[in-house]
Write a structure and sequence with these properties.
Helix content: 25-40%
Number of helices: 4
Shape: globular
Number of strands: 6
Largest sheet: 6 strands, antiparallel
Length: 140
């Protein structure tokens, strides 16, 4: 996203939200640490999809639990953090298919961004750090 001319603060928001989504896979996927990360970038937004093959979960229950956290609780704030950093946060969960977290962030661009030069004509799928749905990343 740096090479595309996205503002640093926007890149930071996306990086923290995606890191949190991936960390949740590693902490909560019942020992199955396979996951994929796909990023789709247009001249207006980045859409990030983090998928895993773990068991499903109840997103609404997790949000309720996160809202009830006390100031001294050390974990459980990841969902709230992701919601605060991106414009749209969606969850899909199926016990047979696994889980998908979709994060959408409107992009703030630098004046010299290549995205402003190709506005309306860019729709690119990007794999980050070699992660993607095929083959899934496996924690060593």
């Amino acid at each position: 996203m740096t090479r595309l001319g996205v503002e640093d603060s926007c890149i930071h928001d996306v990086a923290v939200a995606v890191t949190e989504a991936c960390t949740n896979v590693l902490q909560h996927a019942d020992g199955n640490h396979q996951y994929g990360v796909d990023i789709r970038v247009t001249d207006r937004e980045a859409s990030i999809r983090v998928s895993d093959v773990g068991e499903g979960f109840d997103y609404e229950a997790l949000v309720r639990d996160a809202k009830a956290l006390g100031p001294m609780d050390e974990s459980g704030r990841g969902l709230l953090l992701m919601r605060a950093l991106v414009d749209k946060l969606e969850f899909a969960s199926d016990p047979d298919e696994g889980n998908v977290v979709r994060l959408v962030k409107s992009l703030r661009l630098k004046d010299d961004s290549i995205l402003t030069k190709v506005a309306g004509s860019l729709d690119v799928d990007v794999k980050v750090d070699g992660l993607g749905p095929s083959p899934p990343h496996t924690e060593a």
